[in-house]
Structure formats: structure tokens, C-alpha cells
Amino acid sequence: DARAVIEQVGARLNQMTGYDEIAQLKTKVINSEKAFLTSRERLRACKTAYDDAVGARATSQREINKLLQHQQTWDDKDVTRFAEQFRKEQMDEQAERSTKAECAQAEVEVEHRYNQLVDAIRARYHEEQLWSDKIRGASTYGTLALMLINVLLFISVQTIFEPRKREKLGQHVERLLNERSTAESAELRESMSVIQAALAQQQ
User: Fold this and answer.
1) Number of H helices, E strands in the chain
2) CB-count exposure of residue 198 (10 Å: 0-12, 13-18, 19+)
3) pTM, to two decimals
4) DSSP letter string over 3-32?
5) How far apart are the first and last CA of the chain?
6) Closest by alpha carbon to 68, among 86, 45, 92?
7) CATH class of the domain comprising 2-153
8) Are 30 and 117 in contact (CB under 8 A)?
9) Which of 37, 43, 63, 133 is geometrically suited to a Cys-Cys bond with 106, CB 3.0 to 4.6 A?
10) What is the distance between the alpha carbons of residues 91 and 115, in angstroms, rounded to a whole number?
């Protein structure tokens, strides 16, 4: 499968260049961000529960204070109601303490997750800088290598191929000149033979 081959080549290239470490750090940043957002939502829910508990206890305390204001005229219903409100106020106080402790713990968790996120972002940024410097360095070395290859090719052409080319060209020209000289000599001999024959006939 061509796609699988491309993915394998890409993975191998990332491993060779060190980019796979950056990919892992990116994943770590994403996971740290999710954990931070989750902890922040939990803290928000804890604060809401704490505010509700404080409000409920305040309501219970107001009801108790109202009953205490006319304690001298209580009847059986008022006594029962006072006992119920007192128990409710105790439960509300317990809920207030519990949610307050949960809020404190959630705040610590948020701070911890935030520090983890900052550390992950910092590590990713640092690794990306190192990778970028490495790639720039490799690019510079690659450019220098290409320049060196071009210089070597130019020197090779001037010192090896050009002399051979000139030698072959000289041999070709010399051969053409020899062939032309031979042809001209043959034509001259033929012309001389014709002239000599003509002179012989005139005599």
C-alpha cells in the first residue's frame, strides 16, 4: 500500500530528524491542557456547591433566629420546627466545611495542572527551537556540500574532460585535413597524368 509506505517513510524521517519528540511533546501539551481545563471546571463546580452551602446555612440561621425571637410563645409546632431547623443548620454547616475543603483541594489541583501545562509548553518550545536550529544547520551544511560538489565538477571538467575533448577535436580535424590532403594529392596526380598524356599526343 503506497499510503502505508509513505507513512513509514514519514515516521522514519521524523525519527531521524528528531521531530517525533516534538510530536510527543505536542500530545503532552494537549493532554495537559485538557487536564487543566477539567480541573478548572471541577473548581468552578466546587465553588458553586460551596456558595450554595453557605446560602443554605444562612437561611437556616435566619429561620432559627426568627424562632428564637418569640421563644416565650412557642407551641409544640414551634419546638418541632426549631429542632428541625437546628439539625438542618448543623447539616448545612457540615456541607459548608466539606465543600470549602473540596474547593481548597481543587485550587491546589488547578495550580498543579497549570504548572504542568506551562512546563509542557516550555519543553515543546525549547525542543522546537533545537529542532529548528538543527534543520538550519543541516541546510547550511547541505548548501556548502552542493557548492563544493559544483566546484569539484567544474575542476573535473576543466582538467579532465575539456583536454580530452580538445584532443579528440584535434584528432578529428587532423584526420579531416589528412583526408582532404590525400584527396587533393590524388586529384593533382590525376590532373598531371592528363596533362602529360596531352603533351605526349601533341609530340
Assistant:
1) 4, 0
2) exposed
3) 0.56
4) HHHHHHHHHHHHHHHTHHHHHHHHHHHHHH
5) 98
6) 86
7) mainly alpha
8) no
9) 43
10) 36
DSSP class per residue in 172-186: HHHHHHHHHHHHHHH
Which single residue is written with the C-alpha cell 468552578? 44
The set of cell numbers assigned to 100 is 470549602
Long-range contacts of 83-88 (CB under 8 A, 24+ apart): 85/60, 88/60
Residues 6 or more apart whose Cβ sits within 8 Å of residue 190: none
Query: What cell does 169 get?
Result: 577535436
Question: Which of 119, 120, 122, 127 is closest to 17 using CA atoms?
Answer: 127
Amino acid code (one letter) for 157: V
pLDDT tens for 35-67 read: 999 999 999 999 999 999 999 999 999 998 988
Q: What is the pLDDT of residues 85-104, one digit of tens each?
A: 889 999 999 999 999 999 99
Distance CA(123)–CA(21), nearest Å, equals: 10
The one-letter amino acid at 199: L
